[in-house]
Fold each of these.
Amino acid sequence: MTATDKPMNDEQKSRFNVLNKENLEFLMNRYNRVNRWVIADMIRRTAYHTPDKTAIIFGDKTLTYAQLEAAANRTANALAGLGVNKYDRVAILAHNTIHHVLTWLGCCKLGAVYLAINYLLRGADITYCINHSESKVFIVEDALFGLVEGVLGEMPTVGSLIWSDQGGGQPATDDRFLAFDAWTEAAPDTEPDVVLHIEDPCQMTYTSGTESLPKGVIISNQALMAQYMGAIIDGGYDSGDINVNALPIYHCAQRDVFLNPIFWVGGTNILMAPDIGEILKTIDRYRANMFFAPPTVWIGILRHPDFDRYDLSCLNKCYYGASIMPVEVLKELMAKLPACKVYNYYGQTELAPYHTILKAEDALEKLGSAGMAGLNMESRIEDEACQPIDAAGVPGEICGKGPHAMIMYFKDPEKTEAAMRGGWFHSGDIGVLDEDRYISVVDRKKDMIKTGGENVSTREVEEVIYLDKRVEEVAVIGTPHPKWVEAVTAVVVPRKGESITEAEIISLCKKELAGFKVPKAVVFVDALPKTPTGKILKRNMRHTYSELNR
């Protein structure tokens, strides 16, 4: 029974006579099912318009929007049956699967807080996220069980374990687990009767930053709904889109900038693993028209030996983000996929996550730029005193504000206050404005190299090295040096079959850069270390090559 099924008494009726916080909260709760606007309603409303349209393709499994809505309701009710209440945390360790999507949507419908675990983590790192978040339920995919098998007894807040068999179809090897399908199919497919507000938290993500302990970012329905709307309009999404989700949906970029907005507009989402050969095959097979990847994955696609075997003419929307795209690679992308509109999203987990966008119409004119603030956001560059920098070309910290912003870092008021100081979220990225107020990301604060007292942008050096067409990938880092404190060091992956020398790289840099920016050393490797989302792990390389100049 909903609130509106119960007759009002005289005291409740009196609340219609005065506008104040208490009365408005009563009215918003009473008519919550009528006027609410939250993620829990997203699939139901799309199913109302297109119940029989394919919402998800995952291997040989498909779900229409009507089926997805019913399955999400069953998942929510199954969670409620385990004692999960509003704001309780539900953790999942899984690849891009239907079970993963249902967990997310089920949490939203119940008002629980969804926590996706990064499957790059191991043992103690995973238990930290589970225990710090105080998760009550832990859903584990069969293919990833080995990551937590030895630490399940170290999660005291977890009262229920769920086994997802969509990573390979393995039955549970531990009798403490409930099987996901049997568990959810026994639950009703009616929507839970829960009072939900747009300000309610619905998602928690642990940042993978450089600090010793990750921060738990709490995001609200409001932040995500505003961000979805901005992505749909700024990114040009529509109901005819067929979107390939190959990057992990545990990461907010793939999940919240692409997967969920496409559900909202009624497009089709394909779930798959980040295998480049399979990505090419999938785009061709399903005539997918939109795809997102970080620069490292785009490089792999453009230079894959099977690139020319597949018909990619269907691809008319290409998106990149997560790290800086080298200009030479961007030119190559536009040359090889000339019919594709190219968009660049820039942001952070704390901003749900997109902050700025370089739209397709500006891609050529503003090569290398991160664009301007998205539809619902504001941006500015700040100096060390938190004052705005309006002059073009003067570097400072990129800051943003708007409804995308997080609620808090869980259990960490000091870091929350520091990030939100002065009414702006501080990204930790260094950027500059151009004369049209478009932002270019210069570097992460932590990646800037200070050599002999001079600041060097690693991106600037990388762009020069990419001018050599024999270079597949490059990452520039600072390494300890007895004289210069930090030495500019280039880690280079040559293209297959190509040979490059250190002298050639240094000679090229000397022609294009000031002397202090020229690498003191060049290291050649077969591959750069990366996260599953394609971000280059410069912190790992700084450790690996910390003794290079000793």
Amino acid sequence: MSPRALRRPAAVTAVVASALAAGMLVAPQSASADEIRIHDIQGKTRTSPLAGKQVTEVPGTVTAVRAFGSSRGFWVQDTRPDRDPATSEGIFVYTGSTTPALAVGDAVLVSGIVAEYYPGGAGAGLQSITQLTKATWTVRSSGNALPAAFRLNASSLPNRYAPEADVEHGNIEGLELNPRSYALDRYESLEGMRVAVRNAPVTGATSEHKELWVTAEPRHNRTERGGVLYHSYRDPNPGRVKVASLIPYAERPFPVANVGDELSGTTAGPLDYDNFGGYEIQATELGRLADKALKRETTRKQRADELAVATYNVENLSPKTPQAKFDRLAAALVHNLAGPDIVALEEVQDDNGPTNDGVVSADATLKKLTEAIVAAGGPAYQWRQIDPGDDQDGGQPGGNIRLAFLYNPERVSFTDIPGGDATTPVKVVKDGGKATLSASPGRVDPANEAWKNSRKPLVGQFSFRGKPIFVVANHWNSKGGDQALDSRFQPPARPSETQRVAQAKAVNGFVKELLAADPRADVVVAGDLNDYAFSPALHALTEGKVLTDLVNTLPLDERYGYVFNGNSQVLDHMLTSRHLRKVDYDIVHINAEFADQASDHDPSVVRIKP
């Protein structure tokens, strides 16, 4: 499972002093109470020129009220805008855990302290939200018409995503907004204002937090099944925007949508910025769900002379996982993946899951999974794996996630060679002109610093129709700590990438050793590499053309198996050595595009003729 940033804290605490101590707000200063309007507060950059100052009787009309949770408040928008497209006319007024006694359409005069709220804290790297705190207000009239919502579409959103600072990964907060040139500037220039999308395709399924992603650019980088493809650092798909709802659930349940569905009609509300990353429409008007009936895919059965190898991240699987998930994973392996001969599993937890008590064995986890597979009508898989050192491989504390192989002994045999353990590196042995291993299963270079707090690759030697084949299972370090695409630092820094490049070099070196021993060795490298086909890590893994990344053999609009923040992308890969020329590769879309998931990753399978 690729890690996520934290959700928004329960509140930007109602006591401003506490927020100051947390480093989330700019400290207030005394200021004169000159006539101020919202666009003066918002200014032409990402932070307010009046941050920390008291403002008095700022006019506007209430456009929405957040009356639930601990981060309550209301949005107010000026009905007499200036003519500068860089200055927003809307702002959020934060009232903490107190529901403001206001109604949409109230014309108000608001006084308060201008503050910059940094979701997740100032160190998280996300953009800030300009807001008013410690606010008081008076209502001048009610039932007023709301300002028209700004339409987000291909015409209003520039193709270029973000400006870049003068220095690499520099802070762009001080740059004057250029909403006609950069999508990120366009969104920022609309912060707090009413915006709208029409007939918006869903590009990120409804989450447990009752949010989904849509695109305001229906023709941009679409996948074959209705998402938007992330295939370049240069183009993170500017039309993506998140949708949440301010409409009471009893009045209008939030739609349960899959990728490829549509919010038909108009979805409108003030534009917010979420601490999970991304600009978000807080909908006061929500389009109707047009269900496009997205189907879960099924791959074909391998032929008698084809070896089918699959990879599947089963997302923190342990005996404490509900039986329903085991049953769904089993059904997918049997039916959607057509019973692969070998399966490289990622995120198999130990026998008591996240309980942190020194247990590292995973036999109970794998027994429960293989029994569920048999119950679903599948083969009686056997397994091979190596227990990690306790809390040495990252992941959920106490869970001891690891890699494991399942294999169907009626179709393929495992070549057991003793000597493999958590710390002993597997070696390539040349035997009669052929390559073999010093241990099978074994771990690749486990003492290398590249694998610190990360899963060590597991290699196994198999035999199919008398021919040896080597499978290297991987689960590389996550993207935790990287700056978001919409970070206030542009271009965003990706410090986690350094470790993955080192991991790629280690695996690449091991494959080169196998090929040095036998240039015709059949090798499959598979797993959750937590990186893109266009990344430096994948370039390092394929260096010397010793491996072919099979995702690049697919049509462009099919190159994905994971959806994050509305972007369809590839993190799981299967690669083959050059001797394997007859390959048939398929990413089987059964999870990532759906609100109802057995895992957040799609599995993939390659059929080969060794």
Amino acid sequence: MTTTPLCETRLISVHQPSLFHIEIDEKTQRHQQRLLKIKRIHQGGAIRVLDLFSGCGGLSLGFDAAGFEIIGAVEFDSTAAYSHALNFHRSPDGKPETIHAQDRDITKTEPEDLLKELYPNSSACESVDVLIGGPPCQAFARVGRAKLREVAAHPDAFKLDDRGNLYLRYLTYVRHLNPIAILIENVPDVINYGGHNIPQEICEVLSDLGYRCAYTLLNAAFYGVPQMRERMFLLAYARELEVSIEFPEPTHWIDLPRGYAGSRQVALKAVNLNMLNPDNTVFFQPPPIATPDLKPAITVQEAIGDLPPITLHLEGTLRRGARRFDKLTPYRDDVEVSEYAWAMRNWPKFESRTGIYDHVIRSLPRDYALFRRMNPGDQYPQAYAHAVNMFHERLAELASAGILLESESSRYKELWKELVPPYDTSKFPNKWRKMEANKPARTLMAHLGKDGYSHIHYDSNQARTISVREAARLQSFPDGFQFFGTMNPAFRQIGNAVPPILSHAIAQVILKNIQGRLL
């Protein structure tokens, strides 16, 4: 029997049974289309992934490594979109394919139009098996359950509502493309965002659309990423797969700092509220437990200790301005390469044999001496105290030379400004941090695109913030992965990304569940 593709479905109801009695049941069509996708994969077809809000491709890289086919991406930021194409859709001449390198506004890009543009000879409904992405959550709390269900039932409704939200667009893509598996990533606060448990509400909508859903919190350090990064992950499978939701088991262990446990407790308040309501289906799954018998978490030194030291800034030869990635920095041959660093050098399809092109840092001349003075683990209050001590030491040196500076003099104020950062210690306690060599790094944020004070190198002899490649290593991007643009956009792309190693762990679970249904 020939069926109308879901994205072209029109519900028809004629009330003259003697002439016609035609009713196209959307749920039946969704069911049939999912079975066809499963059958095609069973017959050896690739499992095709579309990455929404893709950034430069942290999620895509993990799925690519697990054997999925990345068929395309939607990304608003032009440099990130170009980076994604540069790594996943490259033409024979080494340049990214133009059609994939375009930045796209998801609020203006319809699923059918996107797939028709990328793959004109295929039906949009049949082109995507797995949908992944991390849609931003701004303004979502004003939408709520009723609005979500309305959009799920009427996918063009967002156009008529001034509260239109990017999560709604993600759900629109789900409805139109009818994937058999879905992954959504976001910050932990999304569980308790303005009084809303957003993953819970999304799961309710996806359940209505024929999916089994669950969400949890995963910390990247438990999966071999040298970074303590806590994120919410939501998984959904088409009921036709007949599988239950599971998340990857931890492979590494660390006793997380109190701040991470506290953040998790705050995020889970909304989960507890849902559990108290007997009418609610609770989609939350407790995170898989990491235990001390696992491998120790990957440390910062294991991650970046093999990379060449940078000292040009201490020699006065580093200038301000855009840092481009046109100079090869050869690997050192006189250092031990950790198992993790070896993996970053030899990631399949992203190998780097001789060196790296993005080992560049910011010029921050005021703070080099302060970076050297700071102890590993010091944050901004400690840095500020060090700077004040340095200021008084300098005053004492001047006094011993017979130069006394009055506290109201311009020279006194100039010296203070030269040595002491201007930020209030009570307002910016976590703005600075000197990394600890024997521990994973703290969470890398997109704010790296503005400054790198949150990740100061542990080596006092280098007295600097981390380089682009060091940030990539801490986020588990392999050395052969290329970031388009200059230093600041690259830092932003890295900070926004999902760690590829964690993405790979989740992708392997999804692959097992899809293939398990096919065996």
Amino acid sequence: MTAITPLQLQWLCHACDPGQFTFQTTADLPDLTNIIGQARAMDAVRFGADIRREGYNLFVLGSPGMSRHSLVRQFLESKASKEAEPPDWCYLNNFTQPHKPKALKLPHGQGEALRAHMARLVDYLRSAIPVQFESEEYRNRISAIQQEYSERQEREIAELEAEAEKKEIILLRTPEGFALAPSRNREAIPPDEYDKLPQERKDQIETDVAGLQAHLEKILARLPQRRRERSERIKQLNHDIMLSAVMHMLNELREIYAGLPAVLDFFDAVQQDMVLHVDDFRKPDESVNISGMTVITHQTFNNYQVNVLSSNHQKPGAPIVYEDNPTYSNLVGRVEHISQFGALVTHFTLIKPGALHQANGGYLLLDIRKVLMQPFAWEGLKRALQAHKIHIESLGQIYSLVSTVSLEPEPVPLDVKVILFGERLFYYLLQQYDPEFSELFKVAADFEETIGRTAESHFLYAQLIATVARKEGLLPYDRCAVARVIEYSARHAGDAEKLSMHMRSIADLLRESDYWARAANHDTVLASDVQQAVDTRRSAVRIVSETGYTKRFSAIS
């Protein structure tokens, strides 16, 4: 019978010799500048971020707690700060088809400037236009037009009266209108005297009255046309005054945006629409109070606003956006509605951007687990990446679940690098069951969970501890405490020849060791403080109730 050789004590724990370190405490060490043990993964990240080809988005594999997010974001921030700022994207009113707002691309930082310019233009015209239409000059010009048509009418009536007088006919003005009657000495002949006239005279009078009546009817028939002409001239005068004021202001803006043809076309459409809606500028604002909020009932002034979707002027370089709640609408944007008089209405100013708009021209960071948990979010993300466009459309509209009137915004071109973070399980499941996944995410960066245990890695681990301690405001660690942390890391890795890269657990141990060192009034963290933290973790138990019985387990030591 073969005898079983018992394990030797030194085999159970590969101790770390503090004597290999030349420093006294981690305060003597510089911060760690390189990433420990993740050179291959960071090379993949660098490749995926640099290559600008279709489908070369990035999937970062690894277990939670390995600082994948912070490492990748740190690299991207360094890279993005040197890249060109992306353009601004805005939505403008489509004056010919209001339900199809137009997308406008502007140079970096110009979106907010255009929005402010248009807001000032509308505010100025709303105060300046009523003043012009209340001026003495405007009233005089209106009076001149009305007097011109009144004099023309009176002149024709006077000519008719003169013609009638030659035939001894008088033109009478009555409340019902005009009447013709025989006269003598410019006074109408009474009926009893008219009956005494010879029949030949009566026939002549009737013939003359009929001719004059036809002439009068022609004069009266021209009155509606002349009223329309007068109204058109007054309307044209109003348009001319409005055009003069609008053109003066817009010409100043045209000089500012002379190099942007799309903006100049927008100014032309605004000018034409403002002239057509001159009466809205002349009238005071019509508003109602809804639930304590004042709402302007006519939307004319809102049509000249600029809805800025993405404007990245606050930070230099390309944008880096992390979406913590990647719902479908949070990714691709949405069209909101407001309730007015019991009905849901919308407007192009209610178009809200999604994470894809905000990250356009830069980088979008997402957790694949969160994306897959949201209905239609994964399909919406893939559709946008495949089409290279962001098409804002509500799920209710796509599946005909609601009949509310909505908008059809013009799609915005998409140029974004998407970085997904997830466990290996998600990566391989998507590779297996989603044929589009490998076409859209061609780069995988697999973060190692352990590194080889060598003298060099021991020193790098010491630098890592020094960096975390300074960043977190912890006490310095002496070299014996560093050695104990390294031993804990090997135990956590489950291999005496390796060290764990699960940074969350290591950082937690450093914080807890700092707590026990401060509780003992130590100036530095000692090995005994680290051991206290390890012992506390080992003795900590949780009671979890599952299916009617209780489980007990201890944390890893």
